[in-house]
Amino acid sequence: GIIAISGSAGGGGGLTGSSDGIIPTDTVLVSQPHLFEAVGTLPEPRRGQTIFVVSGTIYSIGGFTPGPETATNHIMTASVVDPLTWGSSSNPFPVAIAFAYNYIVDDKAYIVGGLGSGSTTNGIDNIWSASLSDLTSWSDTGQTIPNAQFTDFGANQSLAVSNDKIWIWSGRDGGVDQIDIMTASVDDPTDWGDSGVNFPAQRSDMASYRAGDYFYSVGGLNLGSTGADDDIFVAHKDDLTNWTQLADLIPAANRGPMTLVLGDTVYLFGGYNGSVSLDEVYAAPISSPTNFYDVGNLGSVNFGGSCAVISGSVYVFGGFDSAIAATIQRS
Could you read off the pLDDT of 186-202 as tens digits, one per residue? Predict the structure, then answer.
């Protein structure tokens, strides 16, 4: 899912001008991150929203709403002290948006690209920013990313920061999976360019994470096969234009599982196999980050939910089971 966590609320993982990492990560101790139960509901069903956890507040921005499925500009908030009680901000996001990329650099948060109102296929290229002191007050920076695209319906973003650069790879626009690798400097996080190098395969909805000196992207949408894939790609942190496909595979074809790195373990939650939404939880040790095994289940199947670590538990907000859901799950 799409999240960025500030150090004050989530225990680490927000992007800064001096750190290397990938959204999302967390180093706090989490009890039983492989066993979940339903514990509450959001005010509105939501899928593909952007979640930030900053300075004691959880923000849910945009996302798809049901009947018919379309993006919204609503911003909902809750306290980390009570993640089950939500309210709606009187300040909406400037436009309806879902399945966007996001990152935090220094004292600002950014939302880029995404899917706008009235479309389920065509991405947008805008870049918005807000001060971390008020994530209900967003403005269009006037800058754009080189290629209009969205993460796709699993809401996973293939986005990382390494060597003082931010990178985006994998996405979707106009019904086509994208292969362009885009980059920006953390010194000017709205000035994006095309690296001129392509990802090895057309993919969207890949789950991406960092383990040691390497970044990994797994699974994703591949319309050339079954609609979901089980491939694993890897790149060294010093060159995120040089991706290699490994012989290793994840346990099953999966499009858009939520991803967290917790301590010394990588977790994949839920997703979609090309036919149905999934509830499996897979884990791999950081020391062997392509060796995934089945460790548990979500409380219900989930595709396109967003997850965050709050007060020692993993929370999953919204998503899609047989319809867009308002369910809140907790480990």
Answer: 999 999 999 999 999 99
Q: How far apart are CA 137 and CA 8, in angstroms?
A: 20
Q: Would you list the DSSP string of 181-228? A: EEEEETTSTT-EEEEEEE-SS--BS-EEEEETTEEEEE--B-TTTTS-
Residue 8: its pLDDT value, please?
Answer: 24
Q: Which residues contact 212 (CB under 8 A, 6 or more apart)?
A: 286, 289
Look at residues 290, 289, 295 and name the one whose alpha carbon lies nearest to residue 331: 295
Report the pLDDT value the prediction gives residue 7, as an integer from 0 to 100.
27
Enter the DSSP assignment of 249. Answer: E
User: How many distinct helices (H) and strands (E) make up the chain?
Assistant: 1, 31
The closest of 17, 12, 20 to 210, measured between CA atoms, is 20
Dihedral sign from CA coordinates of 53, 56, 60, 61: negative
Please check whether residue 62 is in contact with residue 324, taking contact to mean a CB–CB distance below 8 angstroms. Answer: no
2 neighbors 100 (Cβ within 8 angstroms): yes
Q: Token pair of 211, please? A: 């383990």
Q: Which two tokens stand for residue 181?
A: 């690798």
- Which residue is associated with the tokens 């389920």? 120
pLDDT, tens digit, 9 for 90 and up, residues 18-40:
234 444 444 455 767 888 999 99
Check residue 152 and give its pLDDT. Answer: 87
Low-confidence ranges of the chain (pLDDT < 50): 1-27
**pTM of the predicted model as reported, rounded to 2 decimal places:** 0.91
- Whether the Cβ atoms of residue 37 and residue 298 lie closer than 8 Å to each other: no
Q: Which residues of 14-38 are buried (b: 16+ CB within 10 A; e: fewer)?
A: bbbeeebbbbbbbeeebeebbebee
Measured CA angle at 73 (ends 278, 75), to 5 deg: 80
